[in-house]
C-alpha cells in the first residue's frame, strides 16, 4: 500500500504532456517578487502527503490535499522571507556548517556515506536537496537567535518558582538516549504496549520484533537525546519523563508509537540541585516564549512583505 502511494505521488509530479506541464508551471505564490511554482510546491509537499497517506489524484481527498498544500506553501513563504531578511542582515550559513549537520545525521543513524545516499535515493531525494533543507533550517535558527532569542527574557524568579513546583522531577538528563518504537500496521499495538507496561516484554525486545523505525535491531536506540535541538512537541513529551520511563501509545505520522528514555548501562535517576537545574529550567521556560516571539516576528515580516497567494 505504502509503495503504491509513493508511486502515485511521484506520478503526480510527472509531466504528462503540455497541459500537465502548464499546470505545474503555474505560479502558486509571489513573495516580494520571488516566484513559487506549483511544481516546487507539490514537490515540497510530497513527504507530508505521503505521511498523511493522501492520494492527490483522488477527488475525495481533494480538501485534505489542499490543506496540506496550503500549510507547506505557508512554510515556503516564510523560508523566502527569512532568506531575504538574512540577506539584509548579512547572515549566511557556511558549507562546513551544513557538512557538520549531515555528519550528525549519518552518525545518529549509524550509516556510511554510501548507505546514506542510497537511503535518500530510495526516498526520491538527494544529498543536494537535503543540504538545501538543512541550510534553510540553520538560517532560520540564526535569524531566530538574532531577532527572537535575544528578546526573550526568563527571570530568576520564574526559574526559582518552576524548580520549587517541579524539583521532584528534575533529573540529570546527561547521556540519556531515546528509544523509538513505531508499530507496524498489522500488529496489535495496544496489546504489545500492555506487555511492556507489565514487564512481560522489554521495550528493546518489542522494538526488535515489531518496530518499523530505524535501529530496530538495536532495540530502537536512536542515540543521545540532543535536548536543545528538540522541537516543542518532543520537548514537552520527553521532559516529563525520567530515565527508564516508556510513554503510553501516541500517534506518529499515522502510526502508533512509543518512546523509551534510558541511560545506557543502567544507572539511577539522579535529582538535580537548584544550581544544577537552572540551565535546564531556563531552556524549558524559554521555548514557549521564543515560539510566541517568533510568531510575532513572522507577522511583522509578512506585514512588510508583498505576498500574492494564487493557490
Structural commentary:
The protein has 311 residues and is an alpha+beta fold. It has a domain at 171-264: Chitinase A, domain 3. It contains twelve helices and seven strands. It has helices at residues 2-13, 18-24, 38-51, 62-89, 95-108, 113-122, 127-147, 156-166, 189-198, 203-210, 232-238, 274-304; strands at residues 27-31, 34-37, 177-182, 221-224, 250-252, 255-262, 307-309. The strands form two sheets. A four-stranded antiparallel sheet has the order 4-3-6-5, covered by helices on one side. A three-stranded antiparallel sheet has the order 2-1-7. β5 (250-252) and β6 form a beta hairpin. α3 (38-51) packs across α4 (62-89) and α5 packs across α7. The longest helix has 31 residues, at 274-304. It is globular and about 60 Å long. The two termini are 29 Å apart.
What structural keywords apply?
Chitinase A, domain 3; disordered N terminus; globular; 11% strand; 12 helices; alpha+beta; 311 residues; 3-stranded antiparallel beta sheet
Instruction: Let me know the number of strands.
Output: 7
Under CATH, the topology of the domain at 171-264 can be stated as Chitinase A, domain 3
Class computed from helices, strands and strand pairing: alpha+beta
Rg, Å, rounded: 22 Å
Overall pLDDT: 84
Report the principal-axis shape: globular
Largest sheet: 4 strands, antiparallel
The order of strands across the largest sheet is 4-3-6-5
Residue share in helix: 55-70%
Approximate strand percentage: 5-15%
User: Number of helix segments?
Assistant: 12
Order of helices and strands: HHEEHHHHHHEHHEHEEHE
Q: Low-confidence parts, pLDDT < 50 over ≥5 residues? A: 1-8, 13-21
Overall CATH class of the domain at 171-264: Alpha Beta
What is the level-2 CATH architecture name of the domain at 171-264?
Roll
Q: Span between N and C termini?
A: 29 Å
Domain PpiC: 180-248
Protein name: Periplasmic chaperone for outer membrane proteins SurA
Pfam families: Rotamase_2, SurA_N_3
Signal peptide: 1-21
Amino acid at each position: 500500500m505504502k509503495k503504491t502511494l509513493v508511486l502515485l505521488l511521484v506520478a503526480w509530479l510527472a509531466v504528462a504532456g503540455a497541459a500537465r506541464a502548464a499546470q505545474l508551471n503555474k505560479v502558486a505564490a509571489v513573495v516580494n517578487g520571488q516566484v513559487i511554482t506549483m511544481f516546487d510546491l507539490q514537490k515540497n509537499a510530497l513527504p507530508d502527503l505521503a505521511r498523511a497517506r493522501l492520494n492527490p489524484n483522488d477527488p475525495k481527498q481533494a480538501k485534505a490535499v489542499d490543506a496540506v498544500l496550503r500549510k507547506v506553501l505557508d512554510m515556503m513563504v516564510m523560508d523566502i522571507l527569512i532568506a531575504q531578511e538574512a540577506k539584509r542582515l548579512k547572515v549566511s550559513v557556511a558549507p562546513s556548517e551544513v557538512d557538520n549537520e549531515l555528519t550528525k545525521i549519518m552518525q545518529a543513524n549509524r550509516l556510511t556515506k554510501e548507505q546514506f545516499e542510497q537511503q535518500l535515493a530510495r526516498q526520491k531525494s538527494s544529498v543536494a536537496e537535503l543540504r538545501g533543507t538543512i541550510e534553510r533550517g540553520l538560517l532560520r535558527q540564526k535569524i531566530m537567535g538574532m531577532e527572537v532569542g535575544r528578546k526573550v527574557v526568563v527571570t530568576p524568579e520564574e526559574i526559582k518558582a518552576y524548580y520549587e513546583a517541579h524539583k521532584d522531577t528534575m533529573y540529570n538528563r546527561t547521556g540519556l538516549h531515546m528509544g523509538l518504537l513505531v508499530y507496524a500496521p498489522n500488529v496489535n499495538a495496544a496489546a504489545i504496549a500492555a506487555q511492556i507496561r507489565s514487564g512481560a516484554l522489554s521495550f528493546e525486545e518489542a522494538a526488535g520484533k515489531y518496530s518499523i523505525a530505524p535501529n530496530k535491531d538495536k532495540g530502537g536506540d536512536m542515540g543521545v537525546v540532543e535536548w536543545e535541538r528538540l522541537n516543542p512537541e518532543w520537548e514537552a513529551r520527553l521532559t516529563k519523563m525520567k530515565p527508564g520511563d516508556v510513554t503510553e501509545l501516541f500517534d506518529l505520522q499515522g502510526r502508533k508509537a512509543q518512546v523509551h528514555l534510558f541511560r545506557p548501562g543502567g544507572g539511577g535517576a539522579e535529582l538535580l540541585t537548584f544550581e544544577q537545574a537552572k540551565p535546564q529550567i531556563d531552556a524549558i521556560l524559554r521555548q514557549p516564549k521564543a515560539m510566541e516571539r517568533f510568531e510575532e516576528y513572522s507577522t511583522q515580516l509578512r506585514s512588510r512583505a508583498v505576498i500574492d497567494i494564487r493557490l
